[in-house]
């Protein structure tokens, strides 16, 4: 082909009488001749690239199988021209999303499902228990003990504070028999503990005592062995022993009180409503006369008796005065002093 072209060109050059228009046509013909061969190789390159583009498309499907068996096609897939490279990035990105979750779901479903259910069961039991968080919880503030609500503040005490006396504040205390001194000292010591009146209690460690419980505790601490627990039976106990002296008068200077001595037990009826026989409802221990005032005083547990003009509720020192009769006669329950008794063996 090239020889023919050269011969044709020489012939044209030899022919001198060619016009300017003929030269333009010859130039255009040469441009067409030289321009025609160029597209042929382009078509071949496009076909090659098209073939190569088709070749990487099957490659991404076996790409995830690299883990199991690497086929020879995978070595060809990275070699192709850079045109196929962007397609590789797109295709594996999609392939990684689709195949990866499917095996994970299959692997997780048999293994993770039982473990997860077990975990839920284990966590289910402790979570409702509020014992771990609180209480101790992780935060110290609510922990039973923040939140532990603060201990209930003691209810305000009724009446005046409990009253007490020292032994040397009682007239003639040093002349009392030793057993009487010991008993009264133990009784006065209880008045310093701020004990309340607590019905049914004979134990100061419970925070309070009732009247007969106080008498029972003090006598037991001083080795008086056969003393009964309640005031009615304490009254019977002294009556049987022949140690009881009744008082009918309502005057503090009555002759019936001439034999009253420190350490004797004092008895009342009508301090509260109860069905018992005999109907004794209250008992206390006689102290003697206070040096400062010269008034008779007693010690025990009461729910409102008076000392120095103020009501006291608990274990305290109280004034001993005979109750005055009710002039109105309205039928209300009123305390009535019935007498006193000497504790057997106390003055020997």
Summarize the structure.
The chain is an alpha+beta fold and 348 residues long.
How is this structure best described in words?
The chain has helices spanning 2-14, 20-35, 39-54, 73-76, 85-97, 101-124, 178-190, 211-221, 231-240; strands at 196-197, 208-209, 244-246, 265-269, 280-289, 296-307, 310-319, 336-341. By secondary structure, it is of the alpha+beta class. It has a domain at 178-322 and 333-341: endopeptidase fold (from Nostoc punctiforme) (Alpha-Beta Complex), CATH 3.90.1720.10. The protein has a 6-stranded antiparallel sheet. It has a two-stranded parallel ribbon with strand order 1-2. A hairpin with a 2-residue loop joins strand 6 and strand 7 (310-319). It is rod-shaped and about 180 Å long.
Helicity, in percent?
A: 25-40%
Number of strands: 8
CATH fold name of the domain at 178-322 and 333-341: endopeptidase fold (from Nostoc punctiforme)
Give helix and strand order, one letter per element, not per position.
HHHHHHHEEHHEEEEEE
Strand order of the largest sheet: 3-8-4-5-6-7
Residue share in β-strands: 5-15%
Determine and state the CATH class of the domain at 178-322 and 333-341: Alpha Beta
Ranges where pLDDT stays below 50 over 5 or more residues in a row are 16-23, 44-147
What would you call the structural class? alpha+beta
CATH architecture of the domain at 178-322 and 333-341: Alpha-Beta Complex
- Describe the global form: rod-shaped
The helix tally amounts to 9
pLDDT average, as an integer?
73
Amino- and carboxy-terminal Cα gap: 163 Å
Q: Biggest sheet, open or closed, and with what strands and sense?
A: 6 strands, antiparallel
CATH superfamily of the domain at 178-322 and 333-341: endopeptidase domain like (from Nostoc punctiforme)
- Radius of gyration, in Å, reads 59 Å
């Amino acid at each position: 082909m090239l020889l023919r072209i050269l011969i044709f060109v020489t012939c044209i050059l030899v022919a001198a009488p060619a016009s300017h228009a003929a030269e333009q046509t010859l130039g255009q013909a040469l441009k067409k001749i030289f321009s025609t061969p160029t597209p042929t190789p382009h078509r071949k390159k496009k076909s090659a690239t098209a073939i190569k583009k088709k070749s990487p498309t099957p490659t991404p499907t076996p790409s995830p199988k690299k883990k199991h068996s690497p086929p020879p096609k995978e070595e060809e897939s990275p070699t192709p021209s850079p045109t196929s490279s962007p397609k590789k990035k797109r295709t594996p990105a999609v392939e990684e999303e689709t195949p990866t979750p499917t095996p994970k779901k299959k692997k997780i479903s048999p293994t993770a499902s039982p473990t997860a259910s077990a975990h839920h069961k284990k966590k289910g039991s402790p979570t409702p228990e509020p014992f771990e968080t609180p209480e101790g919880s992780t935060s110290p503030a609510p922990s039973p003990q923040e939140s532990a609500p603060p201990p209930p503040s003691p209810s305000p005490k009724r009446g005046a504070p409990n009253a007490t006396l020292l032994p040397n504040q009682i007239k003639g205390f040093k002349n009392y028999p030793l057993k009487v001194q010991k008993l009264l000292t133990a009784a006065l010591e209880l008045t310093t503990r701020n004990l309340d009146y607590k019905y049914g209690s004979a134990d100061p460690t419970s925070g309070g005592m009732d009247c007969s419980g106080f008498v029972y505790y003090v006598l037991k601490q001083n080795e008086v062995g056969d003393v009964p627990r309640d005031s009615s039976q304490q009254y019977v106990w002294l009556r049987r022993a022949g140690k009881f002296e009744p008082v009918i008068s309502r005057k503090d200077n009555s002759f019936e009180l001439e034999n009253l001595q420190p350490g004797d037990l004092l008895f009342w009826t009508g301090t509260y409503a109860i069905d018992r026989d005999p109907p004794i409802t209250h008992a206390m221990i006689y102290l003697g006369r206070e040096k400062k005032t010269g008034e008779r005083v007693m010690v025990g547990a009461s729910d409102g008796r008076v000392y120095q003009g103020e009501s006291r509720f608990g274990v305290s020192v109280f004034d001993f005065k005979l109750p005055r009769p009710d002039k109105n006669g309205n039928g209300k329950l009123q305390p009535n002093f019935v007498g006193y008794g000497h504790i057997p063996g106390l003055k020997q």
